[in-house]
Amino acid sequence: MSQVERDGLVRAALELIDQGGPQAVSLRVIAGQAGVPVEQLYRVVSGREELLDVVVAELVSRIEGPLEEGMARTWQGYLQALGHRVREVMVMHPRAFPLLVTSPPAAPWLRPPLRSLIVVEDLLAHLVGHGFSDEEAVQAYQGFSSFLLGHLLLEAPCWVPAPGRSRCRWTRAARACRARTSIARMGTSRT
């Protein structure tokens, strides 16, 4: 299968996760929806677990990449922009977010939800570039990732539609919840 077909498989898996959580993902269901034999999907992934790993890789890829330049000029702005990027992934896929934080990381010292070596190396370099020692940068990374993980795991249920409600209708209530817990209200001074 081509990359286009692989991307379609990831989209289909994310749609199933968005509707019913990770437990809803099934290669048979995806094959049935696509009108193809399930064996065809096994040419792309070896099974459900690999498909979930590919979904996590897709979510991680959405966190990687340059941050808003204006925000990233200071270390505080950098952390805020990175936090917003991770939060955007959680808001778009709140039922998939737990996969991002529970799947094995690329390296044993990586902390969820920042599972990408690219993101963490950039974060550490950015902090060191703003005067942090190596030890201070690692401590800031650990504290930031712990705060971000806790905050987003508490906020994620606000974005999951209640039974019988559509996501659009639920969005009003989620906005109210988000306003109470917004990471944007976090202070930016270093003490």
Automatic annotation (TrEMBL):
Tell me the Pfam families matching this sequence.
TetR_C_1, TetR_N
**Gene Ontology MF terms:** DNA binding
**What is the organism of origin for this protein?**
Ornithinimicrobium avium
TM segment ranges: none
Q: Which UniProt keywords apply?
A: DNA-binding, Transcription, Transcription regulation
Q: List, in alphabetical order, the GO biological process terms annotated in this UniProt record.
A: negative regulation of DNA-templated transcription
Q: Would you tell me the protein name for this molecule?
A: TetR family transcriptional regulator
Judging by the UniProt lineage, the source's domain of life is Bacteria
